[in-house]
Design brief:
By secondary structure, this protein is mainly β. The protein has one domain: Immunoglobulin-like (Sandwich). The chain contains no helices and 6 strands. The strands form 2 sheets. The chain has a 4-stranded antiparallel β-sheet with strand order 3-2-5-6, with no helix packed on it. Strands 1-4 form a two-stranded antiparallel ribbon. It starts with 6 loop residues before the first strand and ends with a strand.
Length: 84
């Protein structure tokens, strides 16, 4: 988290072997109720999520990645929990 003005969560991620997604949505929800979202294309490996207020403590990141394999779309949803 950063910022003396608006709060921003800077996120960096990597991809494993295989096809990259067409798009990625990353939702951040803090235990305090603060939340924000980032939507980007599958070529990105970093981004910033604007938040309405700073937070500390528990949070959950949910990633939604959309792929197209042999013309067929599919979506993968993953959840990650952490503590600041």
């Amino acid at each position: 988290l950063s910022g003396t003005g608006p709060t921003v969560a800077n996120i960096v991620w990597t991809y494993g072997e295989g096809t990259r997604p067409l798009s990625v949505i990353i939702d951040l929800v803090a235990g305090s109720g603060s939340s924000g979202s980032l939507t980007t294309d599958g070529g990105a490996t970093s981004g910033s999520i604007p938040l309405p207020a700073p937070f500390s403590g528990a949070y959950t990141l949910t990633t939604t990645a959309t792929y197209r394999t042999l013309g067929v779309p599919s979506t993968t949803i993953s959840k990650f929990a952490g503590v600041l």
